[in-house]
Amino acid sequence: MFGDQAQKEAKKQTKKMYKMFYDSFDAEYTKIQCISFVKPDITPLHAFSSGEYDPIYPIISSAQHYAFTSFSTYPIVNGKKIGNPIADFYEMLLYNNTIIHCMCDGCGIGSAPKKAAWSAGQTAVSSLARDIRTCSNIKEMADAMIRAVADAHESIFTAAELNNETVLIGSTTILIQVVLQLEAAEKRYAALTLNIGDSRAYLHNTSSTKSFFNFEARKCMEDLANSQGRIGNFTNNQPDLRNVTLMYTEVQDGDVIMTCTDGINDNFDPEIIGVEKTMDQMQKQQFIEQQIGQYLQHASLAEAVEAIGEYIVNASSQARESKSRPQTPQSPPSLLVCTKPVGKLDHSTVALVRVELRNPDDLFFIDSNYFPNI
Fold this sequence. Notes:
The chain has a single domain (about 1-220, about 245-325, about 345-370), classed as PPM-type phosphatase domain (Phosphatase 2c, domain 1), CATH 3.60.40.10. About 30% of the residues lie in helices and about 25% in strands. The chain contains eight helices and 17 strands. Strands 1, 6, 7, 8, 9, 12, 13 and 14 form an eight-stranded antiparallel beta sheet that branches. Strands 11-10-15-16-3-2-17 form a seven-stranded antiparallel beta sheet. A hairpin with a 4-residue loop joins β8 and β9 (about 190-195). The longest helix is centred in the N-terminal third of the chain and has 28 residues, at about 1-30. The radius of gyration is 21 Å and the shape is globular. The protein starts with a helix and ends with a strand.
């Protein structure tokens, strides 16, 4: 009897949790139309999932299909890299005509945010890979994405309970995107993008680089710690759903999609890098789009990722040097009173993937290069 009652209560709480997520996305969900899409093959042709990278940070790529890197710009102090472990997570499934991928950024430092990001990302991708088989149109896919992010939220607590870690439960931002083929004859595609928090997604082609959704750039340096939304344990085991996005965007064959955590995006922000403080939000977004676009013009995706990584390392060098040199009351006054260093220290992850048709004969050989020690 007690077991039945517990099951009923669990179902009640799950239903309440799903409603909370659906209500948060309702305004944007209602705008999405029931457009049919070409079903992908059941089994993906290639899968990629990020790993643990320290102290060597790889640049992982597969021909012109995709490229990825994840690294930490935090300094080494007394021989130890602060800020470890990296709490970012990325997973991607490449089907014959479909892309499912997810970017998570654990909020804070330590094992709890890392575990939250990994659990949420793996659950969201698994949920979408299961549900895409039964979806027949874009609106149903959007519905599945909301369920996936709700499942991802729940998975953080389930994983903590299984590992007896319920005292310290982390939280994470989450960005999930599904790219679907609309018409087989014309190679038209649609991208559904769901975002909670401050990770970003950009669409790049020969004519422009644009964010998939309008976002609020940092108001000031003090705003850097604001994740702008998260799932998991934000307050009393509840998510922060004040800033959510669900967007439909048509994309073309050959376009490149870039997803990144805020460790990448914030170091393109004109105020964070000390370029300009008088821009409004839209001007800041356009500035960031323009700067990122310059790096996406490289001949290969791997070269673009490497160039972005090198830029981030350089942009954060002043902040890293400042943190590497602890100040004491005995430090000279000129060192104690100084302007705040430009750049942001963070876990930094970026992935590029090409919109294209794939076939079983495609070769997904993995190439790896490495950043020097940061």
